[in-house]
Task: inverse folding
């Protein structure tokens, strides 16, 4: 649904996240789906290949056998959890992994309680992977960013719908961020920063006596035993996340910030 324009307001851009903005999640779920498929087709053949890969006397293979002895679903769990764990480790985002771990555990418990067996467990999770991919694409398609000559409107769909409006007069700084793949395919994220630090968050540590803040965001304080640094948080509710034409949008917003200052 398009945003209703105000008096003397002109629409400049109406965007949604780029097709490849969820590529990390797509790779994760596709990898897990393939793992399920391999296990479903012939789990013994898959284990035999793993044995040949690691060697029968290797610590990894012996650990895998021990896990299978303790938990029959062990090899499948390792196969399913490893991609999600590696993604969480690389992105330093553990909440999605813990949620994923909880759902896996509930699925195993459900199948055990109703005595459905491991094959049913694998089939259920193959379906979950497909639903996750469809859900991510629906979320991307229904998220809309509107840029006019007066304001930004962020209309995002996740588990619920969130709509935020930000007038240029409230923006004090603007940050442009491009991932490596975004530079190739022409998308990135624009983070508008306000006096109330909309789009930022704080991180603290106790490693030294001086306190500094990112020069893009703020000033610095010296002395004391703790360190608090304001860092940019790429939160979809507060940013124009993974948008195409990102350089055009960034320059357009900068221009109108100057006109309202």
Result:
């Amino acid at each position: 649904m398009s945003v209703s324009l105000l008096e003397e307001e002109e629409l400049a851009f109406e965007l949604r996240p780029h097709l490849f903005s969820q590529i990390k999640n797509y790779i994760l779920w596709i990898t897990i789906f393939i793992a399920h498929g391999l296990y479903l087709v012939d789990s013994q053949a898959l284990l035999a290949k793993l044995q040949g890969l690691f060697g029968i006397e290797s610590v990894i293979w012996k650990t895998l056998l021990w896990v299978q002895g303790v938990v029959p679903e062990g090899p499948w769990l390792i196969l399913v959890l490893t991609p999600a764990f590696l993604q969480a480790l690389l992105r330093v985002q553990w909440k999605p992994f813990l949620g994923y771990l909880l759902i896996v555990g509930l699925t195993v418990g459900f199948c055990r309680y109703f005595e459905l067996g491991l094959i049913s467990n694998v089939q259920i999770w193959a379906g979950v992977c497909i639903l996750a991919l469809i859900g991510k694409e629906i979320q991307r398609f229904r998220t809309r960013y509107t840029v006019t000559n007066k304001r930004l409107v962020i209309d995002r769909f996740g588990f619920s719908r969130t709509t935020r409006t930000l007038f240029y007069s409230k923006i004090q700084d603007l940050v442009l961020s491009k991932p490596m793949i975004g530079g190739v395919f022409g998308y990135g994220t624009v983070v508008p920063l306000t006096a109330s630090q909309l789009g930022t968050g704080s991180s603290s540590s106790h490693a030294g006596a001086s306190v500094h803040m990112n020069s893009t965001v703020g000033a610095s304080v010296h002395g004391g035993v703790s360190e608090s640094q304001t860092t940019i948080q790429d939160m979809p509710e507060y940013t124009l996340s993974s948008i195409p034409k990102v350089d055009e949008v960034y320059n357009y917003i900068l221009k109108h910030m100057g006109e309202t200052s």
